[in-house]
Amino acid sequence: MEKYKNAELTPQERAKDLLARMTVEEKMGQVRTVMPFGLEPGVGAEQCPHGIGEVSTLLYKMLPDAEAQGAVLNTLQEKIMEQSGHGIPAIFHTEGLCGIFVQDAVSYPGGINRGASFDPELEEKIGAAVARAALATGMNHVFAPVLDVARDPRMGRQGEAYGEDPALISAMGAAYVKGIQQTEVAGKKAHAVAKHFAGSHMGMAGVHGADASITERQMREIYAKPFQAAITEAHMKGIMPAYNSINGRAISLDRKMLTKLLREEMGFDGAAVSDYGAISNAHEYDHMYELKAEAGLAAMKAGMDVEEPSKACYDDELEQWFKEGKADIKILDALVERVLTAKFEMGLFESPFALTGKELKDAFYAEEDKQISLKSARESLVLLKNDGILPISQEIRKIAIVGPQADKARRLFGGYTHYNMNESFLMHMNTMAGVDKDIKDGEMKTYPGTQVECDDEEKYDQLMKKLKPEIKSIAEEIQDHFPDAEVTFVQGYPKVGNDVSGFAEALEVCRQADLILLTLGGKNGSGSISTMGEGVDSTNINLPYCQEQFILEAAKLKKPMVAVHINGRPISSDAADAHCNAILECFVPSEMGSRAIAEVLTGEVNPSGRLPVSVAYNAGQVPVCYNHPNGSAAHQAMSIGFPTYMDLPHTPRYPFGFGLSYTTFAYENLKVDPNEKERRVTVSLDVVNTGAAAGTEVVQIYFEDLYASMVRPCRELAGFARVHLEAGERKSVVFDIPYSQFAFLDEDMQWIVEAGQMKIYASASSEDDRAEETFRIETSEIIDGKTRAFYTIGKSVRV
How much is the pTM? Predict the structure, then answer.
């Protein structure tokens, strides 16, 4: 028996043995991807004459169910293995941000929702559920989590990220990776492929994929931190580099980023796969290298193991260069060995196929998944304003519901959900990066004053009924929760633009109501029907004119108004702030969102979400983040300039970590106990529910390095804890924070824990400090940045 077939050997030993047996053609097959353009069994095999590294399952989203997907995938896998010469299976990959793209798989809330939950324990469960469904249907690469640090709401993909803070993202991302990679189904394991290494959301002017101005210090301290946490804590096995260029090179072709930083400094030992079309994008749009083969060779030298989604720069010419010795075969061998090692680690050689029959049903379908999605939606809703109108009384007799999100459950599904990906076949143009834009014939009808395509309501409603027929809209859930009330829906205004033609009808309905429920926001997703999403960036981060104006007109009726906001970026509205009695931020809560929203509005669920981003007043204030450097933004020195803009404060509309509850919490007995010998500080405090309702507080611990040898952030999140308390209940919360979490890069780019005064804040948000205390680190220490602490999760016990 050949050594590579011996499952008793390590994946590395098996990979080395198999590599030595392969021809150049077979090796090149392993660093390429095929995207089958057809759903018939075996389609795609003709592009894999010597095997293939990966197969994109993007189009499998059209198949009727998991059984059908498995059948198509298994037939193609059989052919690929036959043609590889050594029985080498392909890795079939799937997106995983909000669940897999398979009919009847559960869809989960967007990344920004889950960031708002501050719940890594739940995030690990989501990762495990996604991995289980993926493995059952034959997919071993899960393209998630999104570890981007999102600080620019103009960028259309803000809703995919966990938020703006590296510590929060590190906690959530490491948990998700653990959930993915610790799950096993029928002997198979999945690898998480984190996106988008690194600095993806910092593209010039908020544009997706543009050049990003990021210093080496910022890259390591901020943007690479969540990736390092996932590598160190969860041994993450996959990386997808960003489209952007940094310091003069496209990241996908940059050895400094993908080898020196990622592998040598950060210790990553898995496989790097390109974002769709990223390597050819560097050649065609960044104008790097005259030949595609040259760009491909540069990507290989950089450490890019697989080109996605099809052969472009890892082309036949480059293959010939390896055959002729024009390119060093050792470069190709290094990539292939990593790809093969991943396949052996996944268990693909022993279990290469999707499950079938009862085995598939038992692994793929789990009612618990819907409960996980519901819990995630509930925890993600952020109450931004409430004058006491919420929860809505059951005594209300007439409710007017206004807005385009209210009667369409499909509007709650954001980018990278199964529903959203199927919309691409109906819209005039797809905007997903790296794939055919599929521009339809004929003129595109747009909303007045915009470039956004008008929805063909009937077509999209039919798609929703096909994919998620059981999901109710917000209006339907409100009616169910208020059976004795007269609930009337009227659209009133569109999701975007300046059309006010529906105002008169809607205002008349509002005039007859006891309470007005406004659904505000746009359409998060991708393509020409979206107002934000992949390839859909914007200079306007506020509500559209039609919605802002309607709030002003409705306010004249002197009726109580509750705003429910749906979109991938948070609400920023002068009119809503001034005139709405309550504002509930919902982001994109997905299939269980309507129920969660109704439960919060009625008080069945007490809101516990907290903003994972700072909210700018308008785009002119961007970027605004709580952990800006000392001497900047709200910490601008009076000797240099004004402490505010001429027309706005430097502080955000709503701060990071902010969120209201239907109860109140007190923080007491803060204690900060440093232990110089163990190089850690213990922070403890009591949290008391001082209100009349049960609720969950998100306790946040921040630290400030009072004086340092480098310019440091004005404060940073050290840790957090979700603490559930019954009315009147008290719990003690303890945070055991290693000193290494305070490390930064010194003038020589070494990670240092520097001696000096540190201030600890116990806070309800980044601007709501409830207690503070100072301690001193007595001695400085150079440390290994790979093994430093990234965040601390507090533990609570009842007092």
Answer: 0.97
